[in-house]
Write a structure and sequence with these properties.
The protein is mainly β and 124 residues long. Helix content is 6%, strand content 39%.
Length: 124
């Protein structure tokens, strides 16, 4: 059962499109894109840059370090067959919550798990 932690105000995330939050001692990059909320570990798996400073483009966050493109719903990077940890996310009562237990994939996600079919938390 998920242990949800409140990490952000939804209106602020909608306004800024991305935010750095924290849960369980881990930095979490939150993104608001096309009506959905996504949560990925902030520190990049490649060389530890901050994904919260990345650019969101066509369902991916582009790391400011070396431009690896992480699929927002799954954290997967096709070019390197690696995965940024993601966090389950939900929106309730104008607040964003994450389960601080990360999800890490070791195999490529199925097409229906990836953007644009796979999605984060949809707003009500
Ligand atoms: S630090 Fe993120 S791609 Fe290199």
């Amino acid at each position: 059962m998920a242990d949800w932690v409140k990490v952000a105000d939804l209106k602020e995330l909608q306004r800024r499109k991305k935010l750095l939050a924290e849960a369980g001692g881990t930095g979490i990059a939150l993104f608001f894109d096309d009506g959905y909320v996504y949560a990925l570990r902030d520190i990049c798996i490649h060389k530890q840059r901050n994904l919260s400073k990345g650019l969101v483009f066509q369902g991916k966050v582009i790391c400011p370090g070396h431009q690896w493109a992480f699929d927002l719903p799954t954290g997967w990077v096709d070019e390197w067959a690696e995965c940024q940890p993601t966090f389950p996310v939900k929106v309730e009562g104008g607040e964003v919550y994450v389960d601080p237990e990360p999800r890490v994939r070791t195999e490529a996600p199925a097409p229906e798990e990836r953007w644009p079919v796979g999605r984060g938390a949809k707003l009500e």
